[in-house]
Amino acid sequence: MKLKVFVLLLLIINEVIAQERPNIIFILTDDQSYGLLGCTGNKTVKTPHIDKLADQGILFTNAHITSAICTPSRISILLSQFERKHSVNFNSGTSVSAEAWEQSYPDLMRKGGYYTGWIGKNHAPVGEGGYQSGLMEKSFDYWYAGHGHLGFYPKDRHKIFNDAIAHTQPEIITEGVRSFLDNNERRLEGAIEFLEKRPENKPFLLSINFNLPHGAGTSSMQLKPEDDAIYKTLYRDMEIPLPDGYIAKAAIKTPKLPEDLLRTEDRQKGYNYVDTPEATKERYIRQLQAMTGIDRMVGNLVKKLKALNLNKNTIIIFTSDHGLFMGEQGLGGKALCYEKVTHVPLIIMDPRVKKKYKGIRSSALVQSIDIAPTMLSMGKMSIPSTFQGKDISGLLSGGTQEPRNYVFTENLWSTQFGNPRCEAVQNKEWKYIRYYENNTFSASKKIAAAKQLGINENKMLYAVHDTDVAIYRDYIESPLNGEKPVYEELYNLRDDPAELNNLIYKPEHKNVLKTLKSAWINKIEFARGEEAPKVNRYTIDSQLESNKKVHLE
């Protein structure tokens, strides 16, 4: 009898603890620069619901990613590690090992008692065989996502979404969110669910991942008759300004970076829209439309939480995986260390915080790797030693202890597309960037050979072989082993936030430069860590050996 009472008491205590822990919803957009929200200063875009999150929570005005490209940035968020430690990128020939995945925030929080869901895009190859391993799908209680790009019309690319009523990405994701949250909502046949309904006595963690306003999504918008008016007419009756500092390709007199360092002639075709003002405006309009579609999803989400009486105990986190150049200083794309691509919005809305702390704008130096430890802390769980980020939850309620004095960003995606390896260290006033020799083979030459021989261009450009693994490993280790930079930059971010004036050769700043170089050494050593990377081989060769379908995304 005493044992039964004890067990019952234990169950009651566990349920009370579960109810005390907050629900957490993490929203991640794709290629969204800091200035694409009303609350971050954009005078054109309509994002009232996201702006309201900022007014009811905290907006970090100095948040940065770790790597300005999709896959490594997203894995850095999942594992709270710099790319130099987790060692997975498009050119790395690796996937996240099952052992490393056990220390990801979704896996840890699920083991810690959270009911977990993943909706939208996955661009992180996990397990033996990467996207085909099935490990991601098995790691959540609710899975409604596609690997790689979704496009604006996800049904065209992923059969998991075929049962959705909607056909556009924000609206399909909205259906998935409703299905996850509301046990009375229409069940989606494609979704993978390990329980018939979401347990109401357990806290939940929902990760919502967009493939917008990324060019792979917005470029596929077709103004279909059944599309919502947002995606057909919104912003098209307005005079849309070009980005500040825009320089069309034909007007570039002095390139931002030396031509042998950043080879713009090899840039991916998806970023050619920055070459003319007309194409840039069209792309920008589509980005604005996509952001308003995402904002409407956020509004519907908040409304659903309130209807289910979940709004008072559900934290919402909103950010992007990186930004995007759209012709500023004649640049297009990402994979650099400039503010335009590393600086992102980060909003955390915790309804439990006192009113006097709502609407805060914090200039603390925070990074995307801080999100995972912050969520674990909010869920009353311990933070593993593998994490490199910091718990920033104390800043939500008036705390003043900032997580770091310097931010470190890096680009290890040096490929035939002309982008160089580079690293940056910065504080609130100064940024130091260093670049290494760019001796990668030319994409334009590969394309020419593919056309001549009748080879599929994508296979020529995106296939990663075993030999590429050694090259990537050298990219990681060489700077730590004494490789010298071939070009350097120094910017005063307070006086020159657009990073227009390189002060590297100004003798009056030599002491600042010395300090930043010392900080760079500490940061890159920390980013690398001491352990060997916990990865699986994931190349064309490994996929062919296992007789699996080759996946190039």
TrEMBL record:
InterPro entries linked: Alkaline_phosphatase_core_sf (IPR017850), GAG_Ulvan_Degrading_Sulfatases (IPR052701), Sulfatase_N (IPR000917)
Boundaries of every Sulfatase N-terminal domain copy: 22-377
N-terminal signal peptide: 1-18
Highest taxon listed in the record's lineage: Bacteria
Pfam families the UniProt entry points to: Sulfatase (PF00884)
UniProt keyword Signal present: yes
Keywords: Signal
Name of the protein this chain belongs to: Sulfatase-like hydrolase/transferase
Organism: Flavivirga algicola
